[in-house]
Structure formats: structure tokens, C-alpha cells
Amino acid sequence: MKELQDIMELINPEGVIDARIVAAQRSFYEYCKMMNPKFYRDDRPYQRDLCETLQAIFEGRLMNKATGEPYKNLMINLPPRHGKSYTLTLFVQWCMGKRNDTRVISVSYNDILAGRFARNVRDGIDADKLDSKVPIFHDVFPTTCVKRGDAAAQLWSLEGQFFNYLATGFGGTITGIGCSMGIIDDPIKNDQEAFNDRVLDEQWAWYTDTFLSRIEEGGMQIIVMTRWSTKDLCGRLLASEDGGDWFVFCRRACTDETTGAMLCADLLSFKSYIKKRRLTSAEIADANYQQEPVDIKGKLYSEFRTYDALPRDAAGKLDFTEVISYTDTADTGSDDLVSLVAGIHQGEGYILDVLMTDEAMERTEPQTAEQLFTFHVGTARIESNNGGRGFARNVERLLWENHQTRSVNVEWFHQSANKHARIMTGATFVMQHLLFPADWATRWPRYYAAMISYQKTGKNKHDDAPDATTGIAETIQEREGRGTLDIWWV
Predict the structure, then answer these.
(1) How far apart are CA 99 and CA 21, in angstroms?
(2) Which of 72, 186, 462, 472 lies at a CB distance of 3.0 to 4.6 Å from 326, suitable for a disulfide?
(3) Cβ atoms within 10 A of the Cβ of 457, count?
(4) Rounded to whole angstroms, what are the CA distances from 224 to 73, 231, 413?
(5) Neighbour tally for 77: CB within 10 Å
(6) Is the pLDDT of residue 153 over 80?
(7) Residue 354: in which H helix or E strand, if any?
């Protein structure tokens, strides 16, 4: 009741502008409607959802049910021309009006786009009143002003503050400055960059090595981008151990192709959407408008089975007919060694361990020997292509020298079949008869990422993980029906 009285007292005889100001101060969505009522409308509900999500994170009200703590990190995935970057510029203005000590570092694809974003925020705060009927920032937050003489487009401050805003291109220098809000806006230029592993690796390295170090304790992160690939920044973050710390605000342009329902038909009609799809490849259209990463759309493995517990007999002992391993040694310096261990139960394979590394053989040989010993492998198959035979002999030697065991039957063989053809042929068995630990995404993140992103069409830089997994599947099919062994490890 008191809040209503406060608002009513501010209403002047000429109208309700003061009440609107109070509403805009309290609600970011109302601020957006006040600044641009033609764009922000109540019949576009996704806009209210986005604005309220941004405000809730800023105010620490959006709770993460898994941790019981407020979210600090937000991903925004929206179709083109739906106002995601524009909304962010208004959001930064509103946050600075609420708290003039808000410090922002924003990153865009290049310095030009970064400067445009920063300029829009600054000019919005610094706008002059030209029409009494058109509200501006100072109507809502009259005491917040850009500091005179410290208002360069990409680095500026508010009155009374040392620093409030820095904008830079991806990979730029941001040392020496911290922020309470880090924003990354569309770091990928086009689909060519989206599928360039070098570009994606460089962006990830800069994010982890540089950008993260600038986020102050308790600060928030916002990433706005089209979901091109599982290897892009959003994909890698979601697949990381901290993936659960991110709240994902994702909306498709077309919500139902059967009925023609659109996220906002005023901004993109179903007719225009279908026309754009005709002029664009299905994969690119799905990434741009439906937020479906291209490598998910064309990925080979559509699903994986998982297990929470290993099979055991009535006495509680592990119930495997055999424990096997398959090792694909690195063919070249850029390849990975992948060694998988699996237990066979009723014709199905339970993946027990994965070793995936690009280290030199002097390190991978003892690592593989230790893996075989630890999991009491009965038969270890090692591809003898490109030095694999010598690798197998050294592993066999190390099993005796380091672990005093000759119980592992080490087999080496030449794999002459076409690798991609084998992977394609074995995919059904992998999906239907191999089971992975429920936490395999975090237990073996590198292997997991390689498996979920492998493409049917051959656009794959590396195939080591699917190749070794196919080898395990082939070995299980060859050995199905053998007698039970006494597996005693836990």
C-alpha cells in the first residue's frame, strides 16, 4: 500500500509520467518500454521474459536449484533482429542508473562492433532532452552522468567514479581493470569461423586466460551469441564442470513449424522464415534461427546409454564375462592416443575407463600399462598401425616391470578397414549396446566432447575417440558368448 501511495504522490496534474518513472526505476522491462514503446510491447512476451531474467540476475533473485545460490552467469541465445544486443545496451544503462559503481567490460567480435556497443550505452546515458514528450535516461536517473573529459567511446566513467566501461574486440587487452559485469556479445563473425577449430580454440584460451581474470568476486557474466557449434564458447562452458552455473535463456524463431507459430511474428513472420530457410542451408538456418548447433544437427551419435551402477551377481561381485581394452595409438603428432576399458555383461559393454591424451609415448606407454593393471583387463587390443606394434610390446614389458603381472593378453593387429566407414557402421551398436557412466561428461570431458560432436558428413578434424569406441564395440561383438570370469576388483 505504501508503494502505491508513493507512486500516486509523484503523479502530476498533467499526466502520469512520474508514475512511469517510478516504474522504470524499479523494473528494467518498464524502463525498456519507456525508452522505446514501439519495440518493447506486452504482446511480445519473450521481451518481458528476457528483461525480467536480466534484472533477476543483477539483483541476485534468480536461484540455481542445484546449488541453492543465485545465478551469476547468463547465456542468451535468440534469433537475429530480435533485439538481444539492443536490450543489453539498455540493461547496462539501467544497471548504472541503479548503481553508479557498476563496472562493465564488454567484448564483441572486433573493435568496431565493441565501440558501437559502448557508444550506444554512453550516448543513451548522456542524451539531451529535445522533446518534452520523449523520455530519456536522465528522466529516470537524473543523478547519473557521464564524466566530462573521460568519455572516450570505448573507455569512459560516470561522475564520481574512476572507471565504469571498457569495450574491446575479442582477444584484446583488458589487463589492469576489473569489472562487476562482463559481457561477450556475438564473438563469432560467420559460419566459416564457427567451424574453424583454431578460431574456437583461440577464443576459448582468451576467455579462460584473460577474460575470466577480470571478473571480480561476485561479478556476473553475460554471453550473447548464436549457437553454431558444441565447440563454441557456450558449448564448451556448458560441457565443463561449471556448466550448471549458467542460466540459459534460449528461444527459437519458429516455435511450431506445423502451425507456423513464431516467437514474434511482427519481427519475423512464418512466411519470411520459410523464405530464409529456402535460401540458406538447413544447418545454417537451424543455427541462426533455431539455436541448434550445426554439429548437433549433423552429429553421428544421436544418444548414448548410461549407467549408475555396474552389474553384480547375487553375491555382490562384478558380473562381467570379460574385461577388455582397445587402444588407438596416435597416428600423427596432432592425434590423440585413446585407450578404452570395458566390461562385457550379457553382450553389452560397460565403459569403465578412458585414457585420451596427446602426450608423448614415453608417458602414454606407462599410463596405458597402469590402466590395464588397475582394471584387471583380460585382453588388450592395440592397433599396430604407425608404431602401434612397438607401443604394444613396451606396454607388455611395463606391465611386468612396473606391476609384476603377465595376466593381460596384449594383442596387436593392423587395422586396414576405412576408419570413417567403420565408425559409421558401428554407430548403431555404440548407441544401443555401450553404456557410459552417468557422469562421463565431467569424468572424461575431452572424450565426451569428441563423441557428441562427431559428424556424419566427414567434417571432422579428429576421429580418434569414435575410432577407439568403434574398436571396443567390434571386440565385444567378437567375444560375445564366452565363459564367465572371476572379476574381483571394485
Answers:
(1) 16
(2) 472
(3) 10
(4) 11, 15, 49
(5) 18
(6) no
(7) strand 348-357
Instruction: Give the contacts of 69 (CB within 8 A, at least 6 positions apart).
Output: 63
Tell the CATH topology of 2-251: Rossmann fold (3.40.50)
What is the model's pLDDT at position 132? 84
Report the CATH architecture of 305-479: 2-Layer Sandwich (3.30)
Contact (Cβ atoms closer than 8 angstroms) between residue 340 and residue 329: no
Ordered by start, the domain boundaries in the chain are 2-251, 305-479
Residue 414 in grid coordinates: 593392423
> Taking Cα atoms as reference points, which of 239, 278, 338, 315 lies closest to residue 490?
315
282: confidence class by pLDDT, cuts 50, 70, 90: confident
DSSP secondary structure letters along 160-183: T-S--EEEEETT---TT--EEEEE
pLDDT tens profile 113-126: 888 888 999 999 99
**Residue 119: its H or E element:** helix 111-125
In whole angstroms, what is the distance from residue 130 CA to residue 128 CA? 6
User: Which residues have CB under 8 Å from 219's CB, separation 6+?
Assistant: 72, 178, 179, 180, 181, 182
Three-state DSSP state, 434: strand
Q: What is the per-residue pLDDT across 11-54, written as a single tens digit (0 to 9) for each?
A: 454 444 588 999 999 999 999 999 999 999 999 999 999 999 99
